[in-house]
Specification:
This protein is α/β, with parallel strands linked by helices. The chain folds into two domains: 264 residues, Zn peptidases (Aminopeptidase, 3-Layer(aba) Sandwich); 154 residues, Alpha-Beta Plaits (2-Layer Sandwich), CATH 3.30.70.360. The protein has 15 helices and 18 strands. Strand 1 and strand 2 form a beta hairpin. It binds zinc ion. The site of zinc ion has 5 residues, from helix 5.
Length: 485
């Protein structure tokens, strides 16, 4: 009896030892890839003081996308002409829909497919009642020791100024790209991007297929991700789609003193509860796995054990990641009930009750998949599901993290910032890149600016600002990127 027990124990110890050995072996092999060869960042040598003044001046134009008729849209384009004379004599320029300029910098080798660098200069309005919270007037473009302040500095005039400053300096230095490089600055990104759409159509009509394009959609995140000490550049390969479903329940209505057991309002409430209890299936596959696999390599040894041994810990990891809205949004299509209607009087039964549920669609799902999920989950044939097809967008295709464009962007990030982590990611909001992507083999999304967690509230919020250091690094990034073309 004792001998059997001993053998069992010895067997158990052996299993544990082998398991530990496998876990440690996998963890040791799970390393970040080698990054920049040089610790000295690349410098283009552009005039940063001038660029800072240009960004400040750019902020002063009230290019608010809720007021597209404002003369500042046309005035902004004239300002670009005056500020970047070499760009405007070297490149050809057309102005397409919504005051969106498309520049063409002719390359020396016509056999190479062109690329497009994009940004936008329209901005979101200042939320009513938030004016007094701004440390500096939102359209004043105040420059202090560290920052340029104002609406649009981060989103997205900073990138526009960085691109043009880099191009102007390179033309002055006598540089001509081998590939043709297009630049496009959308005038209505914040309200749907008809300008970007027009650019894609324009390129398609001329049979021009871009090798790749780059737009906003992510940043170099510094201490934004808990547990990660070093900055990480998330170069996003896709952006989520969008659909809002309206659930409608009808009933006879009538006086509330004799209600049926199930009312229209009750039906809708039950449907919402079911949808919240049963999120759209998701997990660590495809682009979600690529992102967390890249990220996991930069964590501490203890955390790497989990990421490196997903064959064992995947369910645990998925549960942990699903626990926070930020990481959950990277795993699946999200479900957000946002609007409700019912009766207009407290003592009258609703003849019709409805709810609007906004879904942000992961690249693995289609709009039809979302509708099917909702129908199956609410399991109530009495509820009608409606949606406006013209407002529904699937997620954009997932671009390659091995293609030239991705590698050029990644190397240029390392050139400009020095060693840091780079990962392929997913944009969870919508950008113009979804339109431009229709004219490109691959579409990538990142702004070459380093932001911290506290900066996230500045987007579309109060006290938007860009540091002068960021502006300089951004110019160097675009310089390094253009040198490779
Ligand atoms: Zn933007």
């Amino acid at each position: 009896m004792g001998r059997v027990l001993l053998r069992l124990l010895a067997g158990l110890v052996l299993v544990v030892v082998v398991l530990l050995a496998v876990l440690i072996f996998n963890t040791l092999r799970y390393k970040p890839e080698a990054t920049a060869d040089s610790a000295t960042p690349y410098e283009l040598g552009a005039d940063i003081e001038q660029a800072t003044k240009d960004l400040s001046a750019a902020v002063k134009f009230r290019t608010v996308s809720t007021d597209l008729e404002h003369p500042d849209f046309a005035a902004f384009l004239t300002f670009l002409q005056d500020s970047y004379p070499l760009v405007h004599t070297t490149m050809s320029r057309e102005v397409l829909a919504r005051q969106t300029p498309l520049y063409k910098w002719q390359g020396s080798d016509p056999s190479l497919a062109p690329i497009l660098l994009a940004g936008h200069y329209d901005v979101v309005p200042i939320a009513p009642g938030s004016h007094h919270l701004w440390e500096h007037e939102p359209f004043s473009g105040v420059i202090d020791d560290e920052f340029v302040w104002g609406r649009g500095t981060l989103d997205d005039k900073g990138a526009v100024i960085a691109m043009l400053t880099a191009a102007e300096k390179m033309i002055a230095d006598g540089f001509t790209p081998k590939r043709t490089v297009y630049f496009s600055f959308g005038g209505d990104e914040e309200i749907g991007g008809l300008g970007a759409m027009a650019v894609a159509v324009h390129l398609n009509e001329q049979d021009i297929e871009l090798d790749w394009m780059l737009d906003e959609g992510s940043f170099v995140l510094d201490k934004v991700i808990p547990g990660l000490d070093q900055p990480v550049a998330s170069i996003n390969l896709s952006e989520k789609g969008y659909v809002t479903l309206e659930l409608v329940a009808k009933s006879a209505g009538g006086h509330s003193s004799m209600p049926p057991r199930v009312t229209a309002v009750g039906r809708i409430a039950k449907a919402i509860t079911r949808l919240q209890d049963n999120p759209v299936p998701g997990g660590l596959t495809g682009i979600s796995e690529e992102f967390f696999d890249g990220l996991g390599r930069h964590f501490s040894f203890g955390q790497r054990v989990v990421f490196a041994n997903r064959w064992l810990f995947k369910p645990l990891l998925e549960t942990i990641l699903a626990g926070s809205p930020t990481t959950d949004a990277m795993l699946r299509s999200t479900t957000a009930p946002t609007m409700l209607t019912g009766s207009s009087k407290d003592n009258v039964l609703a003849a019709e009750a409805s709810a609007k549920i906004n879904f942000r669609i992961h690249p693995r799902d289609s709009v039809a998949d979302i509708v099917a999920h909702v129908r199956q989950t609410i399991d109530d044939p009495e509820i009608e599901i409606r949606y406006d097809e013209s407002l529904a967008n699937p997620a954009s295709p997932v671009s390659s993290a091995q293609a030239t464009g991705y590698l050029d962007i990644k190397t240029s990030i390392l050139d400009a910032f020095g060693p840091l982590a780079t990962v392929p990611g997913l944009t969870i909001a919508a950008t113009d890149a979804r339109h431009y992507g229709k004219a490109a083999k691959d579409a990538y999304r990142i702004n070459p600016f380093k932001i911290e967690g506290s900066d996230l509230a500045r987007f579309h919020g109060t006290n938007e600002r860009l540091s002068i250091e960021n502006l300089e690094t951004g110019i160097n990034f675009f310089g390094a990127l253009l040198q490779k073309q």
